[in-house]
Amino acid sequence: MELVHKNLPALIVVLPLCMGLITSIIGRRGLGWWLAMGTTSAVLAMSVQLLVNVLESGTQTVTYVMGSWPVPFGIGYVVDPLNAAVLLIVSMIATVVTLYARKSIASEIDPRRLHFFYALWLFCMTGLLGITITGDAFNLYVLLEISSLSTYTLVALGRNRNRRALTAAINYLVLGSIGANFYLLGIAYLYQVTGSLNIADIHHILTTQVFPTWSTDAPMYRTTVFVGFALMAVGLSLKLALFPLHGWLPNAYTYAPSSVSALLASTATKVGAYAFIRVLFTLVGVNFAFKLLHTDTVLMISAGAAILMGSWLAFRQTNIKKLLAYSSIGQIGYITLGFALGNVNGLTASVIHLFNHALTKGGMFMALGIVAYRTGHTRLQDLQGLGRKLPFTMAAFTAGGLGLIGVPLTAGFVSKWYLVSACFEQGRYEMAAIVLVGSLIALLYTWKVVEAIYFGKRPEDAPAIKEAPITMLVPTLLLAGASIYFGIDASTSSRIATAAAKFLLGVGP
Amino acid sequence: MTPEMTIMLALGVPLLGSVLIAMADRVPNLREAFTLLTALATFGLVASLYPQVIQGAQPRLELLTVIPGVPLSFRVEPLGMVYALVATLLWIPNSLYSIGYMRGNNEKHQTRFYICFPLAIASAIGIAFAENVFTMFVFYETLTFSTFPLVTHKGNSDAVKSGRVYLGILLTTSVCFQLLAVMWIVALHNGGSVSSLDFTRGGIFREGLASGAVDPAIFGLLFFFYIYGIGKAALMPMHRWLPAAMVAPTPVSAFLHAVAVVKAGVFCVIKVTVYVFGVDALRSYHQGQWLLYAAGFTILAGSLIALFQDNLKKRLAYSTISQLSYVVLGAALLTPLSIMAATFHIVAHAFGKITLFFAAGSVYTAAHKTQVSQLDGIGRRMPWTMGAFTIGTLSMIGVPPVVGMASKWLLINGVIESWSIPGGHFDEVFALVVILLSTLLNAGYFLPIVYRAFFKPLSDADQKHPHGEAPWPIVTALMFTAGLTLFFFFWNKPAFELAELVRRAVG
User: Fold this and answer.
1) CA B182, B188, B194: angle at the middle one, nearest 5?
2) Where along chain B do its domains lie?
3) Total count of domains within chain A
4) pTM
5) What is the dihedral sign for C-alpha B94, B99, B100, B106?
6) pLDDT of B214-245, one tens digit each?
7) What was the ipTM of the complex prediction?
8) B-chain residue closest to A414, CA distance
9) Are the CB atoms for B232 and B170 separated by under 8 Å?
10) What residues of chain B lie within 8 A of the CB of A428, using their CB?
11) Do B360 and B446 meet the contact criterion of CB atoms below 8 Å apart?
């Protein structure tokens, strides 16, 4: 046990990687699911332990060096309150969705290839967890590609239901690769300046050796750092699907298998947001990004547009999976707005919304997956009158919808509360107004679906359907219930989020 | 039982009741028994707090902390007690009435109907006892959502459309204005320029305004946001949801849209006027004025529109809009007596209006009539119903011996008190003119109904379709509320004493 404890940060990435390989070899005949389920549960336990370790340690960080090579030469894994929280989100959602995936995915892909699905699933997790935990900028790129490549394939697996999954996957592949390469190029520029790949080390060199020369007559590498940062920012914005770089997202989410949509919507873009926060606050620092370059203004404009346009486009959709996908673009706007505000409440809003939105949207995609499982489609007309046929599933969906609107006593309200508070603190009244208007547009698109569910009539000739199988229903209700619970008692979630925000801004616990 | 326990139970018992009702889905008699028991128990719990409140105690309960710094907490003070008592008391006859109405009209989805009612009541109690602006907002929103399934009960396209108007107006106002005001106040509080988020005697802005930390312009803007953020008070032009909500079954219209929901609105208006912004501060920055004119306009316009409505429930709805603004007018006059009148009118109007709605539903159940023009001679067939209707009518007009007279009396006293404050008296003259004109209008749109019912002969078509009174639960319920309307003219001690405490808290 001692060995496990000491190597926790490494194990959390290495375990799913190894298990993925093993699953692809021996995971036939249903064993794949058991392996995936076991791995995700183990990872969940580890990330809970890691979060506890971090919050209890005096410095609020746990550092781990790979193969005992000291940083900045070797790869260092650094866990602080922020990424400990993101690790927990990823592993928690992954566990719940894996539980759900068993029945759902069996109906969507060829049973002889199920073990490959679970192998990819674990690789995807490896990448997501790795991006989150690593303290090395280049290692982050490698893990970004691991998660992205497995994600492209996972999206393409939706082809049995709809061939358009293939185009969606190609589209995602092209744009995702552009994003990743922009990021890589940015790293190269910064490496040229600093000669380091370790995030903390780059920051140290930039702030002690490079930035101080900029006020003098001979500024060092000014343009190089600007360009490097710009490339990284654009690359990560693509990964995070920040408006107007969101083009790949709607189709990828819509045509992917249900479980994949649920996993991606609640973890992939969240990890993208995390990486962006990391680059802004830990790599280059707020003074450079916000005070010198005014990245915050650009981000706020994007975020405002994302909130309004994403939500409005969601309202215009008739395929409900696509509606949720566009709604995610809007919600990413809220997350971005939070960290663009750059104060404690704003960052808290971002971090807590990573968590709250993961619960809310994950639950909704899973509920929609049940609709697809029972009716074969997710169009608005397929949801007509389902309130009587699938009462629990539709209750979960409605609870999630209320969370997207931000009704009090749902998790979404807590996020919105922090976000609007932060806007007021910074005197950004127009952003506060956008957030409130955004929640009204969320009301429009949610209510469109809710009306169909509860007031619509299911056609007379439609086949009879039953409530979902228990292994799909329980995870869905679990996430929906959690999204309500964390709206009624947000003390735990906001404590962790505030700790993460204060740590990032260096304002003490 | 400690007062904390009582507050907790008053919120918890309705929730428990709705769970029990859901479980008794297949046994209608048991389900309705649960409804009645929950109603009785909830009223008993709220009423048991009355002796302490009247002695000046303000029991409080901190339930939980949703977000650090903003707890969900409750404090029972006289004004909240008035609203909570009225809502829970009238829920009892309304439950009885619902049984008669829902069965008599063979309504569908009755279980859902009975589940949502206690949820709405729990929200109403939450609003009544809220200790801070956050708690009030939370329960204000849960009241909107818990009543939505009741408003759209019929489920047809009409109901869906009205549901959109209902939710659209109530949420737009509460999110864009009220939440904004709440968040702004929280931001001011975090910045140290507002003393507290709790409802405080004299308002929370006193120190901030005195020291100059709060800009008077922002103070005025926040007041404006707050008042228009309370869409449930149906101040024009935010009133459209109320006529739309008339698509609901009559027990819903009667209880929610004459008592619980609309009174939540005007209650919140009084509450924030007195305990957030503070009467003195509002008066010194002349913030009561615009509200006075807005309320006066709503009173007259509502009455004028009511005059031309043939649909009985619509006419009652516009009458409600107009009567609600009496309360707002009382609050806007900003004197202790006028606030007392406003408080008292919450009770007076509730008793009268629920009786009128009960009568309208009774006519619909027994005779399937919805229009005023169809009511010729119906008083002879349904004497109890139309007798109760007449009592309700008199209360709306404000003539003795019914309770409406008492609140009008107090309101005029409030105007006179306002007159004694130095300065121009145009506002007071306006208020008096509004009260007098609207009394005439009230008589103008209510008395013809009474006249038709009792003095016009039955039409030939009606002669061929004999019918009697509505089922006994309906008649019992409406006789009970009509009795209350009469009785409260002669003995209104509890309401009067609580209102007196509110007056002292203002003065």
Assistant:
1) 100
2) 287-507
3) 1
4) 0.91
5) positive
6) 888 889 999 999 999 999 999 888 899 999 98
7) 0.88
8) B67
9) yes
10) none
11) no
